[in-house]
Amino acid sequence: MQRQIIVLGLDDASPNSTLPSVHGGQYGATPSEWCESVLLLICAMLDSELISPHPEIDSYQGKSSEEIRKLLAQGDPENGFDADLIWDVMHFNGTEKLVELLRKFDLNEWTAINAKLPLPLGKALAKMKVVQSYSFN
Fold it and tell me: In this structure, are residues 8 and 94 in contact, taking their beta carbons and an 8 Å threshold?
């Protein structure tokens, strides 16, 4: 999960590209469990102001995590997008808060994805309720 958070700090990402190794990812044996894990992470990161909807998608700017969750679950009939399409077209960017957090731990570059992840990052994310305290490693 920490690797996914690093990716979100470096590039935009769609929900479909999030947590590809959790529960086998989008096409794994338990896609509903993967989907719920993605929703939990996205909502926690939105609530912690670590990510926001991509700025080029005006109609999703300023939406709460619950509104985003609803769009991902039910689609966006107003704009003609079903839920499956929303999972592809909605993208999130790391906020300056996330970028600063990654800089603090020297994790603001692509090589950090394969580096040993520091326990202080896990603790910081747990304090923000983005991850549970037992999932640091």
Answer: yes
Tens of pLDDT, residue by residue over 54-101, are: 877 767 888 899 999 999 999 998 888 899 999 988 999 999 999 999
- What is the rounded (10 degree) CA torsion for 48, 54, 57, 59? 0
Rounded Cα distance, 107 and 121, in Å: 9
**CA-based nearest residue to 88, from 32, 12, 21:** 12
- pTM (predicted TM-score): 0.86
Contact 127, 26 (CB under 8 A): no
Q: Do the beta carbons of residue 102 and residue 9 sit within 8 Å?
A: yes
Q: Are 106 and 9 a contacting pair, CB within 8 Å?
A: no
Q: What is the pLDDT of residues 100-114, one digit of tens each?
A: 999 999 999 998 888
Residue listed under structure tokens 């993605």: 38
